[in-house]
Design goal:
By secondary structure, the chain is α/β, with parallel strands linked by helices. The chain has a single domain, classed as L-arginine/glycine Amidinotransferase, Chain A (5-stranded Propeller), CATH 3.75.10.10. It has a 3-stranded mixed β-sheet with strand order 2-1-15, with helices on one face. It has a 3-stranded mixed β-sheet with strand order 3-4-5, covered by helices on one side. A 3-stranded mixed β-sheet has the order 6-7-8, covered by helices on one side. The longest helix has 17 residues. It is globular, with a radius of gyration of 17 Å. Bound molecules: citrulline. Citrulline (CIR) binds next to loops.
């Protein structure tokens, strides 16, 4: 484990989260897994917040916002780097208003705050930070204009990036529905993306085909948060030496959400 921790970027110290609103089930989804239970979603959110605290993070809790049923998925509203923050312009029109309240928080923490401009659209779920390099997904939500704007902002801040087109990759909404950067040049990746040239120089942990939802795991300081119910992938992470926190995510999965989308870590 100490090898894993060496050469890490500075630890995360904070995360922004927002509890789901009572009309959470009215959000967008492509899943056919039934209607989420609000009580269960709240319980799972509470456990998620406790996990982030266990990782050493202080939580900034935004007020619940029923005007935006998807607003618990705060990750989609911003990209946070050690140098700067970039406010997104979510690809789903029903979600674009979510950014304002996140901006109001971020201005207190970042002196360099950028924003994706029309006609660009970009969801945070499409952006995967891998040290000083970023994978930028082009998806049904993030268009080329948004991706290129982000690449240019990142380049100006001294980061490199690479575009990955997932528009024809079945079963994933965002790039991070299919990959996670675990640190030390190691990427968890679904089969459909494993041969992408972007990952040529990375060590890959390939998701078992019936466990692909678990690809959306999150490295937070010395822990990896992963979804419950994926024993083979859990064993892979365990054997790789990660300290795991396993979380029930069923109600968020019903709404196309994964672990990473429930927080903005910085
Ligand atoms: C949406 O469709 O926008 C939400 N129901 C789910 C967003 C999940 N976000 C993410 O994976 N980063």
């Amino acid at each position: 484990m100490s090898d894993i921790l060496n050469n890490r970027k500075p630890a995360f110290t904070r995360a922004i989260v927002r509890k789901p609103a009572p009309n959470f089930a009215e959000g967008l989804t492509t899943q056919n897994l039934g209607t989420p239970s609000y009580d269960k979603a709240l319980e799972q959110h509470e456990a998620y917040c406790a996990a982030l605290r266990q990782c050493g993070l202080e939580l900034i809790e935004l007020p619940t916002d029923a005007a935006y049923p998807d607003s618990t998925f705060v990750e989609d509203t911003a990209i946070l780097t050690p140098n700067c923050a970039i406010l997104t312009r979510p690809g789903a029109p029903s979600r674009q208003g979510e950014v304002d309240s996140v901006r109001d928080v971020l201005i207190h923490y970042y002196s360099r705050l950028y924003a994706i401009q029309p006609p660009g659209t970009l969801d945070g779920g499409d952006i995967c930070e891998a040290g000083r390099h970023f994978f930028i997904g082009i998806s049904q939500r993030t268009n080329e204009a948004g991706a290129l704007q982000l690449a240019e902002i990142l380049a100006g801040e001294g980061y490199t990036s690479e575009l990955i087109d997932i528009r024809h990759t079945p079963g994933i909404l965002h790039l991070k529905s299919g990959i996670a950067y675990l640190g030390e040049k190691r990427v968890a990746v679904i089969q459909a993306l494993a041969d992408h040239p972007a990952f040529r120089e990375y060590e890959l942990l390939r998701l078992p085909p019936d466990e692909e939802y678990a690809a959306n795991c999150v490295r937070v300081n010395e822990y990896v948060l992963m979804a419950a119910g994926y024993p083979h992938f859990q064993k892979m992470l365990d054997e790789a030496g990660y300290q795991l926190i396993v979380l029930e995510m069923s109600e968020y999965q019903k709404m196309d959400g994964g672990l990473s989308c429930l927080s903005l870590r910085f």
